[in-house]
Amino acid sequence: MRLKNNSSKRMASFLILFLVCHIALFQPVGMSAAGSEFTQSSTPISLSSSTERTVDYIHNQDGFSYSGLIPAQPLGTEIEMTGYQDWPSGFTKDGYAFAGGVFDGQSIWMLPFNVDQVVKVDSVTGQMTGYNDWPANLDLGGSYGGFFVGSFKGGAFDGENIWMVPYNASQVVKVNKATGEMSGYENWPVGFTKGENAFSGGIYAGSSLWLIPASADRVIELNTETGEMTGYDAWPAGFMKNQYSFTGGVYDGRNIWLIPYNADRIVKLDTETGEMTDYDAWPAGFTKNPYAFAGGVYDGQNVWLVPLNALQVLKVNTLTGEMTSYDLPRDAWQGAGGSIFQGGVYDGQSIWLLPYSDGIGVVRIDKTTGEMATYKNWPSGFSKGLAAFNSGVFDGQNIWMIPYSADRIIKLFSLTYTIEEIQDQQMTPLTVGYEPGTPEIKTMTITRNGTGELTSLAVALSGADADAFEISQPAATALNHAAASTTFTIQAKDGLAPGTYTGLVTVSADHMEDVTFTITQVVAGVYDSVISPVMASFDKNVTSATYADITTEVTWKGNTLLAIENEGVALVPDIDYTLADNLVTIKKEYLAGLPLGATSLTFTFSAGEPQTLVITVSDSTPVIDDVPDNDGPNDGSNGGPSGGSNGGATGGTNDGRGSSMPPNTHLISKAGATISFQGGQIVIPEGAWNTSFYLTINRLRSTEVLALADTLSLTGKERFVSEVIELKKDQAGKFHKEVTLHLELTEDEDFVNREGMNVSLYGLDEANQEWVELNNVKVDEEKHSISGTVDHFTKFAAIASQEEEKEAPVPVPAVHLSDISGHWAEESIHRLVAMGAISGYPDGTFQPNQPVTRSEFVTILVRAFQLNLEDGLTASPPFEDVQAHWAIEAISAAYAHDIIQGYSNTSFGPEDRMTREQMAVMIGKLLGLEATTFNSIFVDQGAISDWANPRVMAVVQRGIMNGYSNQAFRPEAYATRAEVAAVILRALEIK
């Protein structure tokens, strides 16, 4: 190696000092942080000349300590340092304390060199814990020339245990990370004798711990499951293994690269075959002197040799073996009182060289360009001396420099200038003409979540609607660790015209990238819905053309239908009327019960004035006179059977004496008869009555039926499903034989066969004013009729009753939420929280205007409707982005019930915000709602996606979702927690 002037003299002094003192004071240890980059962290890869990698995970190692694969988050270029020295009780930090460290995913384990405890440091709090329950028969080592020569150098983490590599200790020691329990291993291979200064570093690969030889004559593989050890000493031709040959090794996923200390070359060991390969094609102008390097850093393709007593960093391409040299800048080594660096760390982007000697700082190397920068911003109160640090550990975000002679462990962390994300804001809607000062005052919080201090904090409004809002500046203009949050306010101005106003709010600070969010204020106009026609007629005569449903068309004007009322009494949806798209149909069954004359039905909408439909009711049904008194029966000889009868019956002409009979009166002889009439049939057997008699059949009018239902208090779950027929005979007494009555059912087959529906034939007990079931009741499904037997005449009807299991009322616990008092969705929120479908936040708020994510909405929906995975349903959705998600169970249940679908076969987007049209589609699929016609009722109808339109219109028509007061639906707007509560509760009521 060629040096110039003072640099050469200083370098020579370094070498002389090191050669004299390296055994007594410090054995420079090979420390490196390697990063092999994989897309699948569990599968080692074989290197080849064509291998290309993208940084994803790195092998977390510092050359002689290995901690496994972790994701890397580069530190960047701005860093701070802080120290931790709150040592465990009973522990004294002096001398050359530690040689290496291991990261277990939460804590840093510092491995003892010249102390009798392993010390664990929590990577979040810095709290330290000591462990010294050493295995039996363990010898920690001795001294040489009056100096303690060290117990362990490096180690490895296998996912559960920390393995410590013996330097002068007599055993390999395993420490359980959970309990601190220790076990020793010294079953050395046949022919191998462990001497002094044996090993310098370890790698965990597969299920084995590999011990890197310092003065030992071979590499040792220890099977961590069995404790069996195997030696490898088939060194490359021409290579002579001597004392202090290597300072640890770097693992690339298959091979271990042994870093030369006193050796004259690099040696690569294949962990699958045990084959060794050497590399000594040093770059032009570079001479490999003894003790030149202390560790190496692996960046995913190259090994960087860390200079201990050299002024160059060497990069070795692991695919080709080609070496490249980079000169250290003067400020990196000037002022060094001895060796320069001991080990390094790779963070996924840069190599960090860690200082050993006093007077020098940490050096960062850009792995792509080789450019270097030096950092000496040590923590306050810390004075870095000779042999300060000898290794480093990367925890995925920070670098921890392990103290050798330093009095504390030092953490390097990046300076970041960031704040928590601020969601887009939706102000409480207003209606044009609102009172001054009534617009919502939105208090926004800015919270620092980076490590750097934020200064010159400010907010600004921009956009076409910026003048519609007033904004205050943050209460504090600087945020740091002592004051991490501040607030500002936004409010819409008074006097805004109808419309939607959106402003862009920008939060800025020194060094910070601007953070933006939108603020939206809707000011609604008032628009009246229109119905057409507003007048209609209905005739109660079933033979009339106007005995039919009445339909009126609604022009919504952005509103939704809330209710239809008759003198304050609400009509029942789907029973008294139906709503399909924009058509409201009043059912004839309801109309038949209205009084004669004009009836006004009032339509109430979500906004605007109510509308009135006037229905004129008439009844053209012919009136039949009562049957006249007769002197006696007639045997029918002068008048044969009339239409609709057989047997001994005469009806509808005369009584055999020339007097006329009404068409609903029949003369029945003692031979019996079968009489058919509109809506049914009666069979009177022979001998049922001893003489002839007159039978009168009357069908009750609609008003009489309704009056009868009211008088006998039929419940809402009971209804007539046939004509109500009154049978009379002109002679008192019960029949000697039961007669059989058949009535046609007026409801369709689906209704009659509905689960829990009971249909039977009843006669009216007028004395007790109650319906009594007939004998031998049978339903004829082919003829769609019902029959029964009875021994007397009265009023008869088929009655259907719906059996429903009565649920005990569930007590609703009181829930106090501090921010929903007076909110439009307050009642819905309380009810849904009480059900356990949604909850508030720990601070007692609900945050009703906070948007929900797709996974949150699905979870609330599944809880509210108590959806479970049932036999025969697919339990596992195909989406790759939910398999480890906290909401996987709810997403699986929703997928099994065909409520959700992803953006693709593999992507669901659980953390994406839920849009209003997505919410409508999921609700529609759950309830089986889908519209077939799409009349334009919203000003932004065209913005609704084609795939969502049928479900959106269906849930709007059913009143589950509404538009805004400005006649907009806003399909792409994010659904808020309040909207979700209201919509799900409405869906539950329909379900």
UniProtKB/TrEMBL annotation:
Task: Kindly indicate whether the keyword Signal belongs to this entry.
Answer: yes
- Does the record's keyword annotation contain Zinc-finger? no
Domain of life per record? Bacteria
Positions of the UniProt region annotated as Disordered: 619-665
Q: Which GO terms describe its biological process?
A: cellulose catabolic process
Identify one Pfam family in the record: SLH
InterPro entries assigned: Carbo-bd_X2 (IPR005102), Cell_Envelope_Struct_Comp (IPR051465), Ig-like_fold (IPR013783), Ig_E-set (IPR014756), SLH_dom (IPR001119)
Composition bias type Gly residues, residue spans: 637-655
The residues forming the signal peptide are: 1-33
Q: Which PROSITE patterns match?
A: SLH
Query: SLH domain location, by residue?
Result: 812-875, 876-934, 935-991
Q: Name the keywords, alphabetized.
A: Carbohydrate metabolism, Cellulose degradation, Polysaccharide degradation, Signal
Q: What is this protein called?
A: SLH domain-containing protein
Native organism is: Paenibacillus campinasensis
Taxonomic lineage is: Bacteria, Bacillati, Bacillota, Bacilli, Bacillales
